[in-house]
Amino acid sequence: MKILGRIKKSKVLTAVMTAVLIFQSACPAGLAYAAQKSGVSTYAAGQTIDQALGATKTVESVLSQHENDEYYLTTPYGNKGPHGEDGAIDTWDCWKPKGEYGSGAYMNCAGFVVAVLRACGANTSIIGNYTAKDGYNRGNEANASKWEEYCRDNNAVSYTFSSKEQMLASGILEKGDIIYMEPVDWNHSNSDCHIGFFWGSSSSEDLYWHSSSHADGIVKGYFPNSAGGNVISKITPKYPVRYYRVIKTLHKGYLTLHKDSSNKTLTDANDCYSLAGAEYGVYTDSNCSNKVATLTTNASGNANTVSLNPGRYYVKETKAPKGYFTDSQVYTADVSGANRESSPVKLSVSDNPANDPMSMLLGKFDGQKTYNGAGNLPQFRYPCRCRVHRRLLRHP
């Protein structure tokens, strides 16, 4: 039984373990859950785990800054707290990376996840204070099982696989996603779950950034002592795995736009007009005051592509191209991690060309300026040519 296995692993006295089991068997499941519950999830459907915890940066962007230094890499492995190695799990604070704590650094697997997500701006105490629907509430966010329980209970964007090979072949994995590994048996004295970050450059590359007591095929970092450490290696469990859960994290999305003339009959093949040089600001607010990116069009009306954190953005023209009036409309774009650089959100926009038509009346008289009856100069045709002075095309 999962709860029994986890209690045995925590080395709780048999009497206490028995008392807990008696309490759970004597109470209805709902009552036991209510008695132990200490927090309510505010998880919104369809969110990634880091979104739910309030992250403002992506895991990939935070970790990429330290891939070639020892801020996280080589941090000693340890389950520690104020009471030392393997003290009471409720007191563990094993989220101390070497780059911040120096010689006092130590991280266990979940503690590494905590340290990184905190650097992303996430509030990991939501995990630490969470009581699962099955009543499980052991330790804090340094317990990897609490991450699994929280994601499972709240329908996090995640996927389960029966083997590593199946997971790597799925096409689901992206750099920075969390991989959790559930052991086949919680009753064995050495059984343990594991958690860390996928770090492959493609969804099939077998690379994992994690803190562990064991790692196969280390490519970056090293174990500073026999207990283990923080490394990038092959995806290596601590114990035979029952299933792998890929817990998706935020990934950058991409946005671009295409611009056309609203009156192509007037502007096509007319060198008084050009689609090149239009500029659109990309904003996080509907008032268009917090600009985070700029889109600039070329002669074909295609803009550059910008990378953005997932979310809703507002796009407004700030500079019109030659011969056009500035578009005052504010466009809305919903960007997600699914909008990769090869398939970005693409807005279609248009500008009205500057055009000031005029009326002209032509009268023809003979030299005598008298009516001449049938000889009144009928059906004369006069070609009209227009030469536009460029100054007339300027506009605010």
Automatic annotation (TrEMBL):
Q: What keywords sit in the KW lines?
A: Signal
Q: Does the keyword Lyase apply?
A: no
- Does rRNA processing appear among the keywords? no
Residues of the signal sequence?
A: 1-28
- Show the InterPro entries listed in the entry: Ig-like_fold, SpaA_PFL_dom_1
Among SUPFAM superfamilies, the record links this protein to:
Cna protein B-type domain
What residue stretches are annotated with the SpaA-like prealbumin fold domain?
267-339
Descriptive protein name: SpaA-like prealbumin fold domain-containing protein
Q: Name the species this protein comes from.
A: Coprococcus catus
Supply the source organism's classification: Bacteria, Bacillati, Bacillota, Clostridia, Lachnospirales
